[in-house]
Amino acid sequence: MSTSQTLAMAAKTRELKAEGKDIIGLSLGEPDFNTPDFIKEAAIQAINDNYNSYTPVDGYVELKDAIIHKFKRDNGLTYDRSQVVVSTGAKQSLANVAMVMLNPGDEVILPCPYWVSYAEIVKLAEGVPVEVPTSVESDFKMTPQQLEAAITPKTRMLWYSSPSNPSGMVYSRDELRALADVLVKHPDIIVVSDEIYEHINFVGEHASMAQFEDMYDRVVTVNGVSKAFAMTGWRIGYIGAPAEIARACNKMQGQITSGANCIAQRAVITALEAPVSKIQYMIDRFKSRRKLIIDLMSEIPGFAITEPEGAFYVFPDVSYFFGKTINGYEIKDATDFSMFLLEKALVATVTGDAFGSPNCIRFSYAASETEIEEAMKRIKNALSE
Ligand code: PMP
Ligand code: GLU
User: Fold this and answer.
1) How far is ligand 2, taken at its centre, from the CA of residue 214, in Å?
2) How far apart are CA 345 and CA 186, in angstroms?
3) InterPro entries from the xrefs (predicted)?
4) What gap in Å lies between CA 203 and CA 284, rounded to an integer?
5) End-to-end CA gap in the chain
């Protein structure tokens, strides 16, 4: 199993900064906003109300009810308490699902680019990641034909995120329906729909695979508060799933971590019960930063860009630079290019290799406007040399 490249790059950035280097960190997918005050206040209240004991393994009932209400309100999805499990981040939700679902050798289809941890979590559960390549030309979307071609008798699951980390692509309802039409012919395949960027969507309505009646019983909907609520360090994620999968995740979690942090759970009740309008100011800022970074990046020759439709990443194809030597620095692949940007432009990014797309690199624009402007200026200068 390899180290998380996103976290490794974040650690390297911290290290270089500590050495006094003026690095602009566009590597980690982490909102630069503070957690909203109304959520912080709920956490302080929870401490004062002496929420300090172990919680139910699958989460406080009040939180599960808030999640059930959120699924209904935002997604039109009906889940009951037996179908919801709260975990220590969506990352644990995903790991739980992999561990309870996969037998050794079971295949999991991962449209590329996929989020960095999917392949490693699948491998940890002794499953086999099956990568389905997409590219800038196909707007990073897997087609129904590609899905059909990737299915074998060993296929157990399909995992994807929409809005996507790292490409920013968003599947429309029609596109999801076309994928579902393939899946209905293969009733043993379970879908993991990672919707953690749901609210950070610039093109329209968010669509969920579980909204299709003929798919509902086979979909695990993963979500969490890290991104839209600026709560990465609070570590709360959750699933809505068929009851038997939720029950198995509950059992797994009960032997590994127990219930998620009690204070964070109480705060998330308040976060999820609030209208989405309370966090709209952050989404609006991401939208204007998207325009800023795309406009500036478009001026840099050699970057092939697909305009991201959601999340807070841009994933340009930089293969134009492969085989070239820039200022004495030989660029063989995206990892070299990402290291070149770190060393010569002092801008941290993540290589596309980590996401199964070795022609690309990922920029997170969850950073201030000043940082984005300065980063693009530095990259332009470093390349013009
Ligand atoms: N899924 C995707 C697509 C992500 O980008 C992240 C970011 N960390 C996660 C899941 C995990 O989120 P967390 O564990 O912070 O809830
Ligand atoms: N999801 C974020 C990212 O992709 C956070 C880092 C991580 O959890 O890997 O950068």
Assistant:
1) 32
2) 49
3) Aminotransferase_I/II_large, AspAT/PAT-like, NHTrfase_class1_PyrdxlP-BS, PyrdxlP-dep_Trfase, PyrdxlP-dep_Trfase_major, PyrdxlP-dep_Trfase_small
4) 12
5) 38
Mutate to test the pocket of ligand 1, among 6, 227, 234 (most ligand atoms within 8 A of CB): 227
Q: Cα of 199 to ligand 2 centre, how many Å?
A: 17
Q: Which atom belonging to ligand 2 lies closest to the Cα atom of 89?
A: 8
Q: Torsions phi, psi of 111, nearest 5?
A: -60, 135
Cα 90 to averaged position of ligand 1 atoms, centre (Å): 5
Would the pTM count as exceeding 0.90? yes
Domains of the chain plus CATH, in order, are: 5-30+279-384 (3.90.1150.10), 37-274 (3.40.640.10)
Rounded CA separation 371/111 (Å): 31
Of 175, 168, 176, 194, residue with least CA distance to 309: 168
Query: Ligand 1 centroid to 231 CA: how many Å?
Result: 11
**On the CB side of 105, how many CA atoms lie within 13 Å of its CA?**
3
User: pLDDT by residue for the chain (385 residues), tens digit each?
Assistant: 888 888 888 888 888 889 999 999 999 899 999 999 999 999 999 999 999 999 999 999 999 999 999 999 999 999 999 999 999 999 999 999 999 999 999 999 999 999 999 999 999 999 999 999 998 888 999 999 999 999 999 999 999 999 999 999 999 999 999 999 999 999 999 999 999 999 999 998 899 999 999 999 999 999 999 999 999 999 999 999 999 999 999 999 999 999 999 999 999 999 999 999 999 999 999 999 999 999 999 999 999 999 999 999 999 999 999 999 998 899 999 999 999 999 999 999 999 999 999 999 999 999 999 999 999 999 999 998 7
CB atoms within 10 A of CB 37: 8
Nearest CA to ligand 2 atom 4: 29
Ligand nearest to the CA of residue 30, numbered in listed order? 2
